Amino acid sequence: MDSIKKRVVLHFPGFEPLDAAAHRARYERSARQSAAVWDYSVTVDELKSFGRAPYFDVTAEAADWRTHSRVHIVDHNDLVAALNGRPFFTRLAQGYLAAARVIVSGGMTGYFRHAWRFGLFFIFPFLLMFVGLLLSLSIAFLPFMLGLAAWSHIGSIALAVAFFVYAFLPQAERLHTLHLFSDWEMAVAMAGLNGIGNEQWLETCAISVRQALDEPGVDEFVISSHSMGSSVAAHVIGLLLERQPEVFRDKRVVFATLGSAILQCALMRSAVVLRSRVGLLARCKEMFWVDVHCLTDAIHFYKTKVVAVCGHADDKQPAILFVRFKKMLTAQHYAKIKRDFLRVHRQYVLGPDVRAFFDFTLMTAGPLPASRFAEFSANNMPELTFNSGSELQAASIGR
User: Which of 259, 80, 96, 268 is nearest to 183 (CA)?
Assistant: First the structure.
């Protein structure tokens, strides 16, 4: 297959408090890591405005190949900022309300049925905050339980507040607890297309994405998405396919979902439109869908066939690419991050320490067609090397 000379990337990031400029800076850092590992050069230009999908240009090259990629960032940082910018008790109450909606709508049951670790991820922030509140209340009512005088409650209440604010909350925030409360609000909104994740907001994203697809002379379009961004991508691209079924005619399109959390939203009964749009993506003949999974990432649906679970078992299922972050990083680096489940979850879009068969920069800026990466999962942990023909070769190193 010919190497890619010009590519357009539409990247839908996960639920993180980062705007397009911050995502560009992260991409540049990761690209420099990748270039150092693979011995090629890379240039990442400045961010330019483009409606809801600002972009930056990336030029990657070695002795006998050169690839130009235009990377659009279709982020939802405005939604993240709106959710995270509210008063503490509002975030607390709305987070627990979102959790109740997930449970009532059948989402939690689906999580434990299809990916029990994701079910634990759902429970974790709400259980942790409940324990913190319970401990604080226990401190406040300790004089009552011990039969002490009423005036002693003044000290116990002050101690309870101090414990919660200065001891518990800092530790909880190290685990991004309130951020995860907001994440579940976003999930409920994306499932039901209400509140912050309504159809009008998605419409503005779709307009910019449609304009990006008009770029001339493009060898390949890559729609990449990470975590919650996969639900946003499914909505936006599905919306385009609903209105213009031939939108990808004569285009080479790859949909790469990285640590996808589509089922975080789609397993709720309210997500009828999202499940329908997943089916449209699966039936799009011009689109090749590769779903990237990692065993050590608890925040996705490992080995789950997302299209089938969304009710489209007879349609073409995404090719699943199994990666191992342990093989992408040095032993010291992996040991440092492996207990931070959110940091592990971000590794899909971060740079490698060593050569491995998956590399986000190479998938979005290298000379190899992105669809080729799906072939490497069957090669028993292959290693990629550049050859003189400006392609990447996969050779099994055996395990």
Answer: 80
Count of CB atoms situated within 10 Å of the CB of 318? 23
- Residue 201: closest CA among 78, 83, 21: 78
| Measured CA distances, 368 to 7, 170, 211, 249, 259 (Å) | 11, 45, 25, 22, 21
**Span 82-109, pLDDT tens digits:** 999 999 999 999 999 999 999 999 999 9
Residue with tokens 């065993």: 295
Instruction: Look at strands 392-396 and 382-386 and give their pairing.
Output: antiparallel
Whether the Cβ atoms of residue 376 and residue 384 lie closer than 8 Å to each other: yes
- The upper half-sphere exposure of residue 163, i.e. CA atoms within 13 Å in the direction of its Cβ, equals 16
For residues 365 and 373, is the Cβ–Cβ distance under 8 A? no
Q: Which residue has the tokens 């919660």?
A: 164
pLDDT tens track for 344-389: 999 999 999 999 889 999 999 999 999 998 886 534 434 445 554 4
**CA–CA separation, 278 and 287 (whole Å):** 12
DSSP-derived secondary structure for 223-263? EEEETTHHHHHHHHHHHHHHH-TTTTTT--EEEEEES--HH
Q: Beta 6-12 vs 41-44: how paired, if at all?
A: unpaired
Cα-flanking dihedrals φ and ψ of residue 398, to 5°?
70, 145
Q: Rounded to whole angstroms, how far apart are CA atoms 315 and 292?
A: 19
How many other C-beta atoms can be found within 10 angstroms of the C-beta atom of residue 5?
A: 15
What is the side-by-side order of every strand in the sheet holding 220-226? 41-44, 55-62, 65-73, 6-12, 220-226, 253-258, 287-294, 319-323
Query: How many angstroms separate the Cα of 349 from the Cα of each of 8, 23, 264, 353?
Result: 17, 10, 20, 13
CA distances to 55, 72, 358 from 58, rounded to whole Å, are 10, 11, 19
CA–CA separation, 191 and 211 (whole Å): 26
What single-letter DSSP state applies at residue 52?
B
* Section 25-32 average pLDDT: 98
Cα–Cα distances (Å) from 95 to 59, 88, 103, 250, in that order, read 42, 10, 13, 44
- How far apart CA 290 and CA 279 sit, in angstroms, is 15
Scan for tokens 């492996």, then name that residue.
Answer: 338
Predicted pLDDT of residue 386: 55
3-class SS at 214? coil
Q: What is the pLDDT of residues 157-204, one digit of tens each?
A: 899 999 999 999 999 999 899 999 999 999 999 999 988 768 889 999
